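Margin note from the TA: students keep mixing up input and output lines. Inputs are the sequences; the output is the structure of the whole complex. Example:
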Amino acid sequence: DAKTTQPPSMDCAEGRAANLPCNHSTISGNEYVYWYRQIHSQGPQYIIHGLKNNETNEMASLIITEDRKSSTLILPHATLRDTAVYYCIVRVASNTGKLIFGQGTTLQVKP
Amino acid sequence: DGGITQSPKYLFRKEGQNVTLSCEQNLNHDAMYWYRQDPGQGLRLIYYSQIVNDFQKGDIAEGYSVSREKKESFPLTVTSAQKNPTAFYLCASRPGTGDSGANVLTFGAGSRLTVL
């Protein structure tokens, strides 16, 4: 599985868009980009995933660059409840379902 | 509501004792996983099971054991052989073993084990 690089921490003002970057320069053609988040002392929560195209759901948008070497998770209107650790994971959609979680980005949404 | 139930939420254990963490899911998922999380760290895979009566070691299986006798249950035993068992333990499941990017993990709320 490709390795990912994320900034350790970011701040965002409440009501503004939060843009969380992820670098995955060694990604291969059949590897998906997944985003999960973990609110303090809870289990991680799936947010969104994509392969090549940009994706949007009720929680967030995922922008993947054309060369697929980086991506950005966008929370369009951040709230205090979005304060969490955000994990970017790249892997093949394999049978094992194993995910490798790095240290992620701690997003602090401030009033 | 469907989901994953982990118990107990908090557990204290004396050194040298085995302890079993429960994980039950009513999502009808085939695959189940156990992860360990240490403070300020990401998650590390302990064991996983893709089907009843079968399981595989993850990256840090030493000192742990599991069983998968029923589809909905995947208990984890932390044995006395685990040198640093104090951690946050997370159970997860996913629908099946299909080769689909949409086959994502659902996590439980976690069990926090402290060894005294």
